[in-house]
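Example record

The entry below shows one chain as it appears in the dataset: sequence first, then structure tokens.
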Amino acid sequence: MSIKGIAASSGIAIAKVYKLATPDLSFDKKKVENTEAEVERLNKALEISKKELEQIKEHARKSLGDEHAEIFSAHLLILGDPELINPIQDNIKNNNINAEAALEETTNMFIDMFKAMDNEYMRERAADIQDVTKRVMAHLLNVDFPNPALINEEVVVVAEDLTPSDTAQLNKQFVKGFTTNIGGRTSHSAIMARSLEIPAVVGTKTIVEDAKKDDLIIVDGIDGEVIVNPSDDQVETYKQKQADFEKQKEVWAQLKDEPTVSADDQHVELVANIGTPDDVAGVVNNGGEGVGLYRTEFLYMGKTELPSEDEQFEAYKSVLEQMGDKPVVVRTLDIGGDKELNYLDLPDEMNPFLGFRAIRLCLERDDIFRVQLRALLRASVYGNLKIMFPMIATLDEFRQAKALLLEEKDNLTSEGVDVSDNIEVGIMVEIPSTAVIARQFAKEVDFFSIGTNDLIQYTMAADRMNERVSYLYQPYHPAILNLVNNVIEAAHAEGKWAGMCGEMAGDSIAIPILLGLGLDEFSMSATSILPARTQIKDLSKQDMASFKEQLLSMDTADEVEQFIREKTNQ
């Protein structure tokens, strides 16, 4: 069975299916005679859960650091808490009911109690108890509970979707690739797959239903195809395609330590998007000339409380030190939309992508924002730091954010803390209003970085996560190209630089266009850097620039794409 999807991360994976799904945890409440046997069943399920969590905690500590492992420490404390466990055991003995019913009744009582408390920290414990209860319940019912961190054989993960925390648990030694029902090239699971350098095909719509556990499956992350139970001939064909791709990577690797120069000797910067300090190794190994986007929200996710100033300082310092004198653009906290923090207890919104998120949240909750700014300023002396504010819609927002930054800089200086005097401060351009009046912004910012993932969805009024309107996610649409051009021209008019940190920056059709528009910095997944450098080496910037007016005046994205394919022999 062959299924088409969206090629989200290049490469070929051939392995058996691992289904990542929450199991059916339904059960019947029953009266039991032998309550001791039920208590023993409960205790056994608790012990298995503890062992799993110890393994997961250790895996998280090694691969993601101590701060990400702390959530599993909290879960282990719950499993060992007699204040919770004793009432479950008493419920079994006193009411002669099965362990499943006693577990659910007792934990629901605690969950409701914690949820009703005024103390935010105590309300957070409700979510922890829920997570732990699911794990124990799965073992009582003898059904598999998904633990991506514990995978220890070669598999392809099949899921409805993958959360950032799911993806962060994947060990690429064993997880050869993944494929999902939903998602697109700009979904977080796709972006994480490229960071992990594992093949991925998303948006297949039906793969969860079509693939069974242990089926052999091929994921073609180059052409966006998934084959379930392939024939022997298909396996051989894809093994050859896999080998060819590895050879191609060896050719790209020859440019690892070379600058990015076009055929007519014009230099541009190829830098990488990262989410954690661990991602820097991929940037260095793929010849990145810097970090164009450090997504700091991953410091805040998968935790039970806000990261401290010192935790953040250590993370930022680590990235800056690893990159040496190469530029590191750090985006301040961009939470909201599809990235939630349960412990902030933010209100539900009808339109979270257009709601209380990113800089809007930070300006209102400046207690959170100031902690991050202080950590960044303290780290600034360890490398070439540039700070970028996300989701800026008005000049007032930028001015407020910069004022807070300067205020915290003064505070640190008065405390005797060293802070760099050479920090460039810029903004992400992802809102059309900002792109339209880029000339006004360019007088005050040090740089622009165009976030095309959101700029496209806001300009086209099309949710990039919605499969039904995915056809409107058009990076080459003339409206998008005109906005991008406006931003680049505005920056250059003021002697500033313009970069791009959206997925468009690593797109083989977009690269010639952006080169011709004069983009200074291309920030992309680390694995896209060497293919992009190879492509730019064969392009003349002057030739691409000569097509600029023609491209900007075209009617459709299809016309633009066809024109570029013809001119660049793609």
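Notes for this example: The mean pLDDT is 90. Residues 2-19+147-250 form a domain with the Glucose Oxidase; domain 1 fold (CATH 3.50.30.10).
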